[in-house]
Amino acid sequence: MATTIDPPQSEMIRLANKPPWYTSLFIQLFVAIVAGIAVGWLWPEFGESLKPLADGFIKLIKMLIAPIIFCTVVLGIAHVGDLKSVGRIGVKALIYFEAVTTFALLFGIVVGNIVKPGSGFSIDPQTLATGAEAVAAKTNDGELPHTVEFLLNIIPSSVISAFAENALLQVLFFAVLFGLALAKFGESGPPVILEFVDHLSHIFFTIIGWIMRLAPVGAFGAMAYIIGQYGIGSLGSYAKLIAACYAAAALFIVILAVIARLFAGVNLWRFLVYIKDEMFLALGTASTEVVLPRIMTKLTNAGCSRTTTGLVVPTGYSFNLDGATLYLSICVLFLAQALGVDLSLGEQITAVLVLMLTSKGMAGVPGSSFLALSATVAAIGHGAIPVAAVALLLGADRIMDSMRVSVNLLGNCVATFVVAAWEGQLDKERMRKVLAGEDVAPLEDVGPEEEQRVPGPISTSRS
């Protein structure tokens, strides 16, 4: 007679306390995205009208991003109390950003030359007369800031304006100064102020937890709007360009996986499983900003120091747009090929050099990809490629959002791991356990927002 072995009591308790499958944010987002695609496809006009659902959700998240970044950076730096350490992290992050984004540009140029996504279009330049007007409407007649202007804009005209305008780099700049000033008062800074900032952080994460319950609604509205406005049919017209961009993104993610493994010992596949909720939300809403608070929390829980996470992630949102740069370099060749123009090696190098500058000022600028491409086409100076040709991408640009968002988000996460390991601020044992799904001791000072699904929340006592 066979004997049965009862499972350990701890395992029985864990299974009993496991929430129902339908409460999983991943499942809810998946259902919402599929439903949004169906609604946008079957009832396009109704799908377009659902855009306010997505806009409202994104605005709710954005209103808390600046204060969360401020609290995270201030607490992290105040506990480190080392100006040199903060400076090293910043310099190392910028070096990494420049190296990887430049590689992304060159990688995109190689893919564009091999796949030739614009071949077969045979566009007559004379038919692009209204292209400039269409691009101007898309970008609200804006322009990308020049390099000097971009750097000066990091310094806020006032602290209040930085928060009011949700200027992340300006908030980060002030937070670094504030954290260093607190650290000057001692190892932990003035206890009353630090405790106040810590309580604020908990309050903001509590609000984020409430807002995240609306994430499926926001994803549903965003997907219904995108499909309703642009239609499934637009996929066919730009099939080769879309295939080239997504194939390049997949290959680039493999490269990111190699970088993560070699320089930080991170298994990127396990990390993807760990952040699957955030990745789905970013893809569904076509925005990486909506997941910024949760990504920072999960990176810290996975072993990255709070200081490194607080400095690298917000900075990367402006300086490390790997997906956007990859897309832009492919699109430059797409435009040339669609017009039957064979760009020389020198002209392609010029395009890369221009994109190295223009891609750094894209964050937060409406229609930034069109502005960057317009500036690049003008800099190449090839008479057969009018700036108005950028309008050819109006029908495909929004479809590329998922590609750009996924690579941008993963690129910044990998950057955080690499810089943390480089600076000796990565707890590799904790990272291994968290990514393997093992139980880990929770970090002190649990953030209320993380009571939902993150195994161990941010600690205010770690560097």
From TrEMBL:
Q: What topology does it adopt in the membrane?
A: Multi-pass membrane protein
Task: Please give a single GO biological process term from the UniProt record.
Answer: L-aspartate transmembrane transport
* Record's keyword terms, sorted: Cell membrane, Membrane, Symport, Transmembrane, Transmembrane helix, Transport
Question: What highest taxon heads this organism's lineage?
Answer: Bacteria
Q: What are the start and end residues of every segment in region (Disordered)?
A: 442-463
Record GO cellular component, one term: plasma membrane
> Cellular location of this protein?
Cell membrane
Q: What is this protein called?
A: C4-dicarboxylate transporter
